[in-house]
Amino acid sequence: MLHRQLTTDGPTRYLWLLSNGVAQGFTKLNRRCYVPTNPTQVGLELEKIQFLKTATGQGSGSALMTEFIAQATRWAKPFVWLDVLKTNEAGRRMYERGGFVVVGEIPFSTDNHDVGMWVMKKEVS
């Protein structure tokens, strides 16, 4: 069974996905962040989501997504936004299944490649 735990200090929050008391993954949320493609909009940023390899493909992403959307509602945030590497097709598809849509793109490069990132957003009702 999966359980969620929320840290309670500061503007940055972490949601931990636990199974039998062992962390399987987490998300890092920033409570008040401007969308890089539209700096007049402020919402809840999903900065990071990570899982153990053994926790992938078991609904862990969906479980955490459900929880951080519920948290956005509790915090009265109008939307959740994130950025995802353009090369991360599986991640983009997961977010799209959760109701996120691409609202823009931002440049991102490494020493060797210009990759780019999609900015995605989900309205919270």
What does it look like?
There is one protein chain. With 125 residues, this protein is of the alpha+beta class. The chain has one domain: Aminopeptidase. Helices cover 19% and strands 49% of the residues. The protein has a seven-stranded mixed beta sheet with strand order 1-2-3-4-5-7-6, covered by helices on one side. The mean pLDDT is 85.
CATH class: Alpha Beta
N/C terminus separation: 27 Å
Task: Figure out the total of helices.
Answer: 2
Can you tell me the number of structural domains? 1
Structural topology:
Layout: E1 2-6, E2 12-19, E3 22-35, E4 38-51, H1 60-74, E5 79-85, H2 89-97, E6 101-106, E7 117-123
Parallel strand pairs: 4-5
Antiparallel strand pairs: 1-2, 2-3, 3-4, 5-7, 6-7
